[in-house]
């Protein structure tokens, strides 16, 4: 579809609460905003979608063309995406399904929208099926159920930290499950097979990119401001910034392993992930101990100027 046609659909979608006419009338449609793999700029496209329980599926059909669409290449580089569906907007992690899981989901998609089967028949490439998993940070009370209102910068800090801890656990659980499944497939006594799955890659990449963004923002804005108003915290801030550099080195090791998931050593990946877990858990706990009292009276979101 041409850029001008896409833009007309996007404009109509946003003006009418997610409803559009013409060839898309009555079908489920969403707007997917990805970050350009090369440009780093946001790109929005309208896509048909199929719901799978609480998740959404989109297919990289490109109308049966021989190459994957640009938005698919973008989300491989930057898994965190923005989704608009109806009047709802949310952040998501885009995870292409693999193997039997992909085949099952594609069959489900074709049952709802048979045209995707025709697109698959028109090309030799396997059409990617991408699962859009909501990725909003969660901040809940001690009972693990009731959401807590975020009214201060201290609340916001804990909210982001809660999400980072949860994503790190998620990546570790997925990596361990992937390694166990590959070992079981090869049989007892067989040497471990190299390689990581796309699911592990996408979640780890999203985690690393979010962590880098969080620490860069702290170094550029939050920590210098805290130091200006609370000079007694300068030793703690110096320690936090040094820990940022240590964590960044581990993060770079993980990203290097994700460059070629087909040959990556999963045991080394788990070792580096455990290093990250140890360092990050200690860092986040220390940061909360030192900064929360200073940030508790800072309103969030910031008041309008």
From TrEMBL:
GO molecular function: coenzyme F420 binding; oxidoreductase activity
Taxon lineage: Bacteria, Bacillati, Actinomycetota, Actinomycetes, Kitasatosporales
Pfam families to which the protein is assigned, alphabetical: F420H2_quin_red, Hemerythrin
Name of the protein this chain belongs to: Cation-binding protein
Ranges where the Hemerythrin-like domain occurs: 154-295
Listed transmembrane segments: none
Family: Belongs to the F420H(2)-dependent quinone reductase family.
GO CC terms: plasma membrane
Superkingdom as given in the UniProt entry: Bacteria
SUPFAM superfamilies: FMN-binding split barrel (SSF50475)
Signal peptide span: none
PANTHER family: F420H(2)-DEPENDENT QUINONE REDUCTASE RV1261C (PTHR39428:SF1)
InterPro entries per UniProt: F420H2_quin_Rdtase (IPR004378), Hemerythrin-like (IPR012312), Split_barrel_FMN-bd (IPR012349)
CDD domains membership: Hr-like
Reactions catalysed according to its record: oxidized coenzyme F420-(gamma-L-Glu)(n) + a quinol + H(+) = reduced coenzyme F420-(gamma-L-Glu)(n) + a quinone
